[in-house]
Amino acid sequence: MIFEDEIQMKEYLKMMTDMIVLCATLAISLFFWIISITASTYFGTLQPVSPWRWLFSILVPLTLTTRALKKRSLDHSGALGALLVGFILTMANMSFFSALLAFFITSSKLTRWKEEVKKKLDSDYKEGGQRNWVQVFCNGGVPTELALLYMIEVGPGEMPVDFGKQYSASWMCLSLLGALACSTGDTWASEVGPVLSQTKPRLITSWREVPTGTNGGVTPVGLLASFLGGLAVGVAYYISQILLVRDLHLADPQWPIIIYGAMAGLMGSMLDSVLGAHWQYSGGSSSGMYENSYLNVFCLFQASFLTKKLNITGKRVNLAIWDTAGQERFHALGPIYYRDSNGAILVYDITDEDSFQKVKNWVKELRKMLGNEICLCIVGNKVDLEKERHVSVEEAEGYAESVGAKHYHTSAKLNKGIEELFLDLCKRMMETAQAEERAKGNGASQSTTSRRGVQIVDDDPQAATAAGGCCSSA
Fold it and tell me: In Å, what is the CA distance from 247 to each residue of 159, 241, 251, 323?
């Protein structure tokens, strides 16, 4: 009996909460309506906004964000941000609201789609998405600004896209639609591509195969999904135009909006991939690096920045990989990249003796700057060209052992040995970090200054004058 009373009490409280929210919403909408009537009377040129529009603009976004919060599509900060974005876009134009609704619903559904598969692909996967206010404003910030400019230009209400009659407002409409289509296309690509694609993604800047989850990686399935995502937003905008805009037959044809949305979705996803391949960063600061499971790697393959997520013995590892290809123009900037690194991968071409000598230069510099705690990997690449080898296995492995590094054999062309290289390096870095933590706990001094104060004796004058770098341009 007590149990039934508790259930009834919870239902009663829930009902009362809904009633209070509804009454508060009505009061707020009427308050805004009174303000708009007063402003229109005072200025004379402003058109008052219907109380029903105020009510709809508050109540519907509030309902949607509450449901999203319960389904964990948004966290609390994300719900507040989404409420603000939804209110402004709905107040400005119902077509804006329709496009936003298409983005929000489809993205939320796809985020929860195939969750078990995504958990295996991404160790950092969050159930439902749980987007915060930063993610909400990254997707909705520009549309919100455009909606405010639209209301300043023509006031709240629906209008056709017609450059002959409303030039600047039409540009605002298309810009807002394009921004939402870009966000939708990118979300569809990231949620559908990794799950359905039967091939590995390719880096959009070089078109070489990269591991799943690499920033800048694209697949044909993902690009098609981005096109369809933008198409969905364009269709939603077009339908609302047909239903809500008066005298639509007097304006220019509106159907190109659908194609525009689809192309914006595709181009938005591709642009995001290009930016991800060059600029995207998901690493951590040097302080508290191990506690946050972020490990930096200074990797000398090409001039770019990449990330790679791994799950090792139940620990989530996010590799931040700085990659300069050992090119001389980046040599002076080297300390900026590797000063907080936990590990380094130094690659040489087994068919090029000079590249192996340059690796020795890098080893000396890294040891001098970072000491013996950094995990070094010396990698002999292009083992598929064994017949053209100029650096013997004995020489390379002997040198690696002499400097406390591990030697690996890889073939980027055949994708051989690369995954094992990263997994082994991660394990070594984690073991080193754990040892440092234990040493600190025992009261041992582990200051950064003493750790980086190791002096390297130059025992190879020829290498000292060699140009900075570790591998050929190939």
Answer: 9, 11, 7, 58
Q: What single DSSP character describes residue 456?
A: -
Q: Classify residue 332 by its DSSP letter.
A: T
Residue 233's φ and ψ, nearest 5 degrees, are: -65, -40
- CB 386: neighbour CB atoms within 10 A? 12
For the chain, the average pLDDT equals 75
Does residue 146 register a pLDDT over 80? yes
Q: Which of 363, 327, 303 is nearest to 471 (CA)?
A: 327
List, in sequence order, every beta strand (DSSP E) within 212-270: 217-218
Separation between Cα atoms, residue 117 and residue 264, nearest integer Å: 28
Residue 129 has pLDDT above 90, yes or no: no
pLDDT of 5 above 80: no
Q: What is the DSSP string of 372-435?
A: GGSEEEEEEE-GGGGGG--S-HHHHHHHHHHTT-EEEE-BTTTTBSHHHHHHHHHHHHHHHHHH
Q: What is the token pair recorded at 290?
A: 């191990």
Q: Distance (Å, rounded) from C-alpha 128 to C-alpha 132?
A: 12
Q: Is the dihedral of CA 345, 350, 355, 361 positive or negative?
A: positive
pLDDT band at 260 (very low <50, low <70, confident <90, very high): very high
- The single residue listed with the structure tokens 């040599």 is 331
Question: 171-174 — which CB contacts under 8 Å span 24+ positions?
Answer: 172/146, 173/93, 173/95, 173/96, 174/257, 174/260
- How far, in Å, CA of 319 to CA of 218, rounded? 20
